[in-house]
Amino acid sequence: MAKISKHLTLLILLAASTNFALAADDQNKAMMLLSTAEKMKRKDRQQEAVAFCDQAIKIDPKYKDAYLAKGLYLMELGKYKESIATFNKLIALDKDFAQAYLHRGQCYVNLKETTRALSDFSDVINRNPAHRQGLHNRATIYEDIGQLDKAEKDLNALVAVKGAARPSSAYHIRAGFYVRHGYFDKAIIDYTNIIKLKPTSDQAYNQRAELYLRTRQPALALADYTHLTKFNPRDEAAYAGRAKCQLIIKRYDLALLDADKAIALDPDNGAAYLVRAKAHSALSHKDQAEKDLKKAKELGFQ
Fold first, then answer.
1. Which SS3 state, helix, strand or coil, does residue 129 take?
2. Torsion angle, alpha carbons of 112, 118, 119, 125, to 10
3. Global pTM?
4. What is the C-alpha to C-alpha distance for residues 56 and 71, in angstroms, rounded to an integer?
5. Are 154 and 170 in contact (CB under 8 A)?
């Protein structure tokens, strides 16, 4: 009896090891199929990529990465409803899979189903209040539907996320929101924070300079444009911007010098011609002013 029991135990162990080997083999096949799908995607053959994902899922119906990849490929093909169905299956497998909610929410955005998109992005944030993409996406929807207080709240949370790989990008996003809605002083603060994080950020200096001009602070704008010319001595837009500042504070000779530099770097810089025309006019250089004004108008500036 003991020998029979040992024999049965050996058979059971052998069967279990065989099933394990088969399962491992299937898993490897599914992984190879997903790898092939990724190669198809890189060749812009998304429909074939979807087919390989389907094969991987058929072998391993719980292969979450295959569902995720398939959903993304369907999104790229513009098949948002099919993509949503795929993400639904992924969520059924793992209700805490944040990327599934995030991408399904984007599908709903593309289908203009705002309420469902908000729900999905909120699910992402509820699971992880520091989820940067979730906060950004929900803020974008709130802004689009005119709920600016809620949008700003999400953007504030985005900026507050600790340990972000690129913290300056959150300030850029919020600053853009402030500019779009006329909160220039707040935007200036955000661009100043970016400059503190990245002292050579020409984009932040340029955008802050423009806002200083819009808020009638030409001396501060001039300082930012001067920084830009130091970063890049061939930045014709910076010279044109500084020329405008010089014009506003009535340093007409300096305005002419900067406008000359901008035009030398870019003979089609209409803004520089317009500034130079006004500087010449202020200095009673009538002929030069008329000539530059004519050129500025030809380039669409007046």
1. coil
2. 140
3. 0.83
4. 13
5. no
CA distance 131 to 168: 16
CA distance 129 to 121: 11
* Cβ-proximal residues to 170 (8 Å cutoff; 6+ apart), any chain: 132, 155, 158, 159, 161, 164
| Amino acid residing at 84 | I
Residue with tokens 């990465």: 65
Torsion of CA 286, 290, 293, 294, to 10 degrees: -170
Q: What is the pLDDT of residues 191-209, one digit of tens each?
A: 999 999 999 899 999 999 9
Average pLDDT for residues 48-68, to the nearest whole number?
A: 93
Q: Residue 135 is encoded by which pair of tokens?
A: 């906060």
Secondary structure (DSSP) of 208-238 = HHHHHHHTT-HHHHHHHHHHHHHH-TT-HHH
Dump pLDDT digits (tens) for 61-75: 999 999 999 999 999
Cβ–Cβ < 8 Å for 98, 82: no
